[in-house]
Specification:
The protein has six helices and nine strands; from the N terminus they run E-E-H-E-H-E-E-E-H-E-E-H-H-E-H. It is of the alpha/beta class and 156 residues long. It is elongated.
């Protein structure tokens, strides 16, 4: 997305500033890297989609990269709502293949898994797998992808 008030070339030095839904390593960062491939860009990670819209609207960044929809869960409503409420417009689209991983200690059998911790969106995207292969595990939501793998140490 892009504010109507920003110059498409970015800062005076020619570096494009783009905010994405962080933390580093998220699918939004991958989409930003894909979209801006070959361009001089500075990526800023944000905690929330609303933070990205605010940065773009205030002119603190030239672009914002947010998820709009996915094939299993449909629309990302907060992004669509904010898009309607703002003066920001969509300036491009990236389709990214999303692959999730189930992380466990070496040697753990599926039967030994008691809890799965992940972002609510990832849990929803993996619901069929979880219902089929891990129907009796406790599912715990964690809003930050990075913290999900870090939380592994606490429960692992």
């Amino acid at each position: 997305m892009k504010s109507r008030n920003n110059d498409i070339t970015g800062t005076e030095e020619g570096k494009i500033r783009a905010a994405f839904l962080g933390p580093k390593g998220t699918f939004c960062e991958q989409a930003a890297l894909t979209f801006f491939e070959g361009k001089n860009v500075s990526l800023i990670n944000c905690k929330g989609i609303n933070d990205i819209f605010e940065l773009v609207e205030d002119g603190n960044v030239d672009y914002g990269v947010v998820p709009i929809e996915n094939s299993t869960e449909g629309s990302v409503n907060i992004a669509l709502d904010l898009l309607l409420e703002s003066k920001i417009f969509i300036s491009g689209e990236v389709e990214e293949r999303i692959t999730h991983n189930l992380i466990a200690r070496s040697g753990i059998d599926f039967a030994d898994i008691e809890i799965v911790i992940s972002h609510p969106q990832a849990i929803a995207q993996c619901r069929v797998f979880l219902d089929k292969y891990l129907p009796n595990v406790q599912i715990k939501e964690n809003e930050q992808y990075c913290c999900s793998s870090k939380s592994f140490r606490k429960y692992g």
